[in-house]
Specification:
binds uridine-5'-diphosphate-glucuronic acid, Rossmann fold, NAD(P)-bd_dom_sf, alpha/beta, binds nicotinamide-adenine-dinucleotide, 18 helices, 2 domains, eight-stranded mixed beta sheet
C-alpha cells in the first residue's frame, strides 16, 4: 500500500541534492528532509549561519535554505542515522566519467552509487523506497535492486528512477516550475508515494509515470538532444564565418518554426558543465556495448564538434594575434561554464586556457563567482604542466579592469550580464593596441566595439 512519507533522506549534498531537497522541504513542511554527505566541509558550508557561504551559488537558493533549515531541512554527515529513520531515500551522488579500467573516458563511474546502495542495504531496518536521482546508465536500477535484495534481511526495497532536469543558474525556478517530473518504477504504490511529494506543488498531469528503463534512458536522451542542438548551431556558426551569414540571424529564422523551437540555439565557444559530455559519452558507451555502432557514432559526433568549437576559438585567437601569444597577457572574462553559477566543471574556459598556455600565454581571469584557487585546481587537474607553472602563468583578480589592463586581447568565456555594462572605452584605453576582443558568447555589440576602436570577433559572424 502507498507509504506515507514523513521523513526523507538524500545522499549527496551537491548541485542537485541541495537545491532539490531545499525545494521539497519548502513545499512539504510536514516532511523532515535530511541531506547527508561524506564531505564534512561541504556539510559545514551548508550549515553556515551566513547563507552567502553556502557551497553552491544559485539565485533564490539562499532564501529557501534560510527559511527551511533547522525547521524541516537538515544537513548532516550522519548518513546511517538519516537512512534508518527515513521512509524514502534519494541517491544524488556524482556519477562522473570513469578515469580508469574498462570504459575509461566513456562509461559512467558507478562506484559512488553502489556504495550508497550497500550503505542502505547494511543499515536499513524498515522498508524503504530508494529513488535514483543521479543520472544513471539505463538498467542501473537492476544492479541496485540486486544489492538491496541480497541482504539476508526481510526488509523490502522499492526502487524508483526520478531523474532531475534542472539546469544550473536557474535551478530553483526549474524546480518550482518543472516542465515535467519523471518517475519510473515497478511498484505503483511506490510511484504514487513519490508523486505525492511532488504533488505538493506540481500539477498531477505534469508528473509522468513510466517503466524504470524508460525513465533512466529518458534522462540520457534529454541531455543528448539538448547538447545536440548546441553542436548543430555551432557547426553552422563555422559555416557562417565563411559565408557572411550571421548565426544569430539564422538561429532566429529557424527557431521561429515551431517544429524547431527557439530555445537552446545560442552559438557559443562550446558547451560545458558536468553533465552533457559525461552523459553523451555514457550513451555512446552503452550503444557500443550493444554493438550499435551507427547509433554510437551518431551521438559521438556531438562531442567531436564541441571539442572542435573550443579548439577553433583558441586557434583563431592565436592566429589573429599574429600567430603568437607567447608572453602576451590575455584577459579572460568568465570562467564558469555558464552565467549565474559558480560551477566550472568542463567549462570551455579551462580548455581554451590550456591551449593558450601551451603557447606560453599569460592569462588573467575575472569571474564574479569563481576563485583563483578553483581556477588553479581546474588547470592542475588536466595535468598538462606543473602546478607552479599554472600559478605563474594564470592569475585571477577580483577586479575586471585589472584583469584587462595591458592585455593584448579579451576573451569572453561566460555570458555574465555584468560584462555588458562595463566601461568598454576605459578598458580599450588601458589595453595594448591593437586591442582585440574575442567574444565567445556573442554578448557585445560589434559596431559599438568597433566604434571604440576594438578589433572585435565573435562566433558565427
Ligand atoms: P556533486 O558532485 O555536486 O554532488 C555529489 C555529492 O555526493 C558530493 O558532495 C559527494 O561528496 C557526495 N557523495 C559521493 N559519494 C557519497 C557517498 N557514498 N555517501 C554520501 N555522499 C556521497 O554532483 P551533482 O552535480 O549534484 O550531480 C549529482 C548527480 O545528478 C549526477 O549523477 C549528475 O549527473 C546528476 N545531475 C546533475 C545536474 C546538475 O545540474 N549538476 C542536473 C541533473 C542531474
Ligand atoms: C543541463 C540541462 O539543461 C538540464 O536539463 C540537465 O538537468 C542538466 O544539464 C544535467 O543533467 O546536468 P546545465 O548543464 O546546468 O543543464 O546548463 P545548460 O543551460 O544546459 O547549459 C549547458 C552548457 O551549454 C553551458 O555551457 C551553456 O553555456 C551552453 N549552452 C546552452 C550554449 O552554448 N547554447 C545554448 O543555447 C544553451
Amino acid at each position: 500500500q502507498k507509504m506515507k512519507v514523513t521523513k526523507i533522506c538524500c545522499i549527496g549534498a551537491g548541485y542537485v541534492g541541495g537545491p532539490t531537497m531545499a525545494v521539497i522541504a519548502k513545499k512539504n513542511p510536514h516532511i523532515k528532509v535530511t541531506i547527508v554527505d561524506i564531505n564534512q566541509a561541504r556539510i559545514d558550508a551548508w550549515n553556515d549561519s551566513d547563507v552567502s557561504k553556502l557551497p553552491i551559488y544559485e539565485p533564490g537558493l539562499a532564501e529557501i535554505v534560510k527559511e527551511t533549515r533547522g525547521k524541516n531541512l537538515f544537513f548532516s554527515t550522519e548518513i546511517d542515522k538519516a537512512i534508518n529513520e527515513s521512509e524514502m531515500i534519494f541517491i544524488s551522488v556524482n556519477t562522473p566519467t570513469k578515469t580508469y579500467g574498462k570504459g575509461k573516458g566513456m562509461a559512467a563511474d558507478l562506484k559512488y552509487v553502489e556504495l550508497c546502495a550497500r550503505n542502505i542495504a547494511d543499515v536499513a531496518k524498515t522498508d524503504k523506497i530508494v529513488v535514483e536521482k543521479s543520472t544513471l546508465p539505463v538498467r542501473t536500477a537492476q544492479a541496485i535492486k540486486s544489492i538491496l535484495d541480497n541482504t539476508g534481511s526481510d526488509v523490502k526495497f522499492d526502487i524508483l528512477s526520478n531523474p532531475e532536469f534542472l539546469a544550473e543558474g536557474t535551478a530553483i525556478q526549474d524546480l518550482l516550475n518543472p516542465d515535467r517530473v519523471l518517475i519510473g518504477g515497478e511498484s505503483e504504490d511506490a510511484i504514487e508515494s513519490l508523486a505525492s511529494v511532488y504533488g505538493s506543488w506540481v500539477p498531477q498531469e505534469q508528473i509522468l509515470r513510466t517503466n524504470v528503463w524508460s525513465s533512466e534512458l529518458s534522462k540520457l536522451t534529454a541531455n543528448a538532444f539538448l547538447a545536440q542542438r548546441i553542436s548543430s548551431i555551432n557547426a553552422i556558426s563555422e559555416l557562417c564565418e565563411k559565408t557572411e551569414a550571421d548565426v544569430d540571424e539564422v538561429a532566429k529564422a529557424i527557431g521561429m518554426d515551431t517544429r524547431i523551437g527557439s530555445k537552446f540555439l545560442k552559438s557559443s565557444v562550446g558547451f560545458g558543465g558536468s553533465c552533457f559530455q559525461k552523459d553523451i559519452l555514457n550513451l555512446v558507451y552503452i550503444a557500443r556495448s550493444y554493438n550499435l555502432h551507427e547509433v554510437a557514432d551518431y551521438w559521438e559526433q556531438v562531442i567531436i564538434l564541441n571539442d572542435h568549437q573550443k579548439r577553433r576559438f583558441a586557434d583563431n585567437l592565436i592566429s589573429t594575434l599574429y600567430n603568437t601569444v607567447s608572453g602576451k597577457k590575455i584577459g579572460f572574462l568568465g570562467w564558469a561554464f555558464k552565467k549565474d553559477t559558480n560551477d566550472t566543471r568542463e567549462s570551455a574556459a579551462i580548455y581554451v586556457a590550456d591551449h593558450l598556455l601551451n603557447e606560453q600565454a599569460n592569462i588573467a581571469v575575472y569571474d564574479p563567482k569563481v576563485s583563483n584557487e578553483k581556477i588553479q585546481s581546474d588547470l592542475n587537474y588536466l595535468n598538462t604542466r606543473s602546478e607552479e607553472e599554472n600559478r605563474n602563468l594564470v592569475q585571477a583578480t577580483n577586479d575586471p579592469y585589472e584583469a584587462l589592463k595591458d592585455a593584448h586581447a579579451v576573451a569572453i568565456m561566460t555570458e555574465w550580464d555584468e560584462f555588458k555594462t562595463y566601461d568598454w572605452k576605459k578598458i580599450y584605453n588601458e589595453m595594448k593596441k591593437p586591442a582585440f576582443i574575442f567574444d565567445g558568447r556573442n554578448i557585445l555589440d560589434k559596431s559599438e566595439m568597433e566604434k571604440i576602436g576594438f578589433e572585435y570577433s565573435s562566433i558565427g559572424k
